[in-house]
Amino acid sequence: MEHIITVNNLHKAFDSEKVLKGVDLKVKPGQIFALLGTNGAGKTTMINILSTLLPHDKGEVNINGFDVKESPHQVRQSITLTGQFSALDEVLTGRENLRFIAKLSGLKSVEERVSQILEEVSMTKAADKRVKEYSGGMKRRIDIAMGLLADQDILFLDEPTTGLDPEARKEIYGLIEKLVSSGKTIFLTTQYLQEAEKLADYIAVLHNGKIAASGTFEELQALYQRQDEALDLEEIFFAVIEEEKEVRLGYDKTNFSTNRTTFEAPEEKW
Ligand SMILES: Nc1ncnc2c1ncn2[C@@H]1O[C@H](COP(=O)(O)OP(=O)(O)OP(=O)(O)O)[C@@H](O)[C@H]1O
């Protein structure tokens, strides 16, 4: 399968607020795909639609060969979602939390699977301590571990490092890299652009309800330059947003030059 996630012309409105206005994107299997956007751009809305939690108004979403509207059950069997807020019971230990979810999911060989996953997220040593004694990074690792129990192919991680200190963020990124090297596809949102720059195989910027720019970091660098100077992802992100504003309002460009001629997602690069 060339693309494990395909989104075509996706629209979503809440009452009169149009949040997604024709999103197109494609994700290759085994990639780390980072969706970036300012607060309120619609990143969580996207993740919720792609993971079948929220119905969309128009367009097609295909996950692992299944349409989210026609085959939500099969989509759910292909994915896991770790949201922005921890789903852990603080009174239980990490192991007990995992055991609970493993049993609820009807997994076989629960103890063996739980130990295996604890090892995978490097939490074997602290597994029998109560979650309330864990650091933020440890909690997040158990949160991600819950999603790994059933061994799905695609992981949606909504801001997996938000609220963590730099060291804990590094640990989570190490874990994400490990998961991808074991064959998972990761679709994540993040506010930490430097980390997305280092980690992501493919980056898309959601702005004004559409993908305003997308590509590998190197492709984005080639498209957005300032006087032939290479930009980092943060500078590219602001250039994209600034450029969109200029195009919508009809301003002249002043600060940034781009090699872009259109503002459509560069399909040929997928
Ligand atoms: N259930 C809902 N009902 C009404 N409006 C909603 C709902 N969910 C999201 N919105 C609105 O949709 C817009 C996009 O929200 P969303 O949470 O998807 O953005 P985001 O990019 O994830 O933001 P953040 O980075 O702050 O988490 C916001 O204006 C939000 O208020």
Automatic annotation (TrEMBL):
- Tell me if Nucleotide-binding is a UniProt keyword of this record: yes
Q: One GO MF term, please?
A: ATP hydrolysis activity
Task: Tell me which UniProt keywords the record has, alphabetically.
Answer: ATP-binding, Nucleotide-binding, Transport
**Superkingdom, natural source:** Bacteria
* SUPFAM superfamilies per the UniProt record, alphabetical: P-loop containing nucleoside triphosphate hydrolases
**TM region(s), chain numbering:** none
Q: Which Pfam families does this UniProt record tie to the protein?
A: ABC_tran
What residues does the ABC transporter domain cover? 5-233
The similarity comment for this entry is: Belongs to the ABC transporter superfamily.
**Protein name per UniProt:** ABC transporter ATP-binding protein
